[in-house]
Amino acid sequence: MRKKVLREVEARLRQYRGLKKRADPQAAAWCAAIEQTMTEYDDTGEPARVRLLVLRYFEGEKEETVMETICVARNTYYAWKREALMTIAFHAAQSGLFPPEKRKITDSPTKKIAKSGDNRA
User: Fold this and answer.
1) Alpha-carbon 27 to chain mean position
2) Contact present, 20 and 28 (Cβ < 8 Å)
3) 36 CB burial (10 A radius; 0-12, 13-18, 19+)
4) How far apart are CA 112 and CA 13, in angstroms?
5) What is the DSSP letter of 70?
6) Residue 52's closest CA among 86, 19, 77?
7) d(CA 76, CA 8)
């Protein structure tokens, strides 16, 4: 599920300029999630993380070019990128863009107790 969410966030980042032009509530919510994340990074004194998002997703630069431009090592780049994607996903989820995952319940703990013959309270 997590990879699916991160891929969705990356797709929305790449579509950001187009989303800004649309008038539907879902596009507005995606833009708000992206902008809120970028504002948080600006407010906490981390403009390099904003630059990472702008270069990679808005301008379509290659990862190597982004790493060179913002002067970070590969591990740092991937850590920052993942953190930014997760932060955007968090804000998107708060806006209802990711509905709760439905899980199939196979057995409840109470059924297991009843099946085992131990009925003590």
Assistant:
1) 15
2) no
3) middle
4) 46
5) H
6) 77
7) 22
Longest Cα–Cα distance of the chain, Å, equals 66
CA distance 24 to 22: 6
Query: pLDDT at position 105, please?
Result: 57
- 104 C-beta neighbours (distance < 10 Å), count: 4
The percent helix, strand, coil of the chain (3-state, each to 5) is 70, 0, 30
Q: What is the pLDDT of residue 85?
A: 95
Residue 32 DSSP symbol: H
29 contacts 95 by C-beta, under 8 angstroms: yes
pLDDT tens readout for residues 26-56: 999 999 999 999 999 999 999 999 999 999 9
Structure tokens at 73: 């090592």
Tokens of 53: 């998002």
Q: What is the number of other CB atoms lying within 10 angstroms of the CB of residue 68?
A: 11
Do residues 91 and 37 touch, judged by C-beta distance below 8 A?
A: yes
> How much is the pTM?
0.78
